[in-house]
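Before a colleague's protein record goes any further, I have to sign it off. Would you go through it and say whether the fold makes sense for this chain? Take the sequence as given and treat only the tokens as open to question. The record follows directly below this note.
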Amino acid sequence: MATSIRLSRGGSKKRPYYRIVVADVRAPRDGKFIERIGSYNPLLAKTDEKRVVLDVERAKYWVANGAQPTDRVARFLDAAGVKERAARNNPNKGEPGQKAKDRAEDKAAKLAEAEEAAREAAAAPAVEEAPAEEAPAAEEVAPTVEEAQAAEEAPAAEASEEQAEG
């Protein structure tokens, strides 16, 4: 009979609590088990000693008899010194997916096109400098709000001076 050491979920919704059990591999996750050898409460702080409670002697017995722990339980057994766990490495974990790579390539291509267009636009006005000089002259014709107010006040001041003289 193939056995495994795994977690059996208990607790209410959004408040998980796990029992560390030895069960037949064909039994359902929360179903029939052979023996309960500990518990795991993920809601407690990592430094809390009651977060993982494990009967080390029974765990050693079941590992010696061929019970295979799941990845999470193997971490607990390694921390308790029951079974050495080889460190795992997933170098592709931080690598983006294919769609994200495609989006990045498209964005880079658009950025390169925009930079090329900007270079061409910067080179084109250098040849045609005459239209560039006309634009500031057009801006000088339109008075600013402050200049318009000053212009309105000036004739009123001249009219009052003429009345004082006459």
User: Anything to note?
Assistant: Residues 40 and 88 are 22 Å apart (CA to CA).
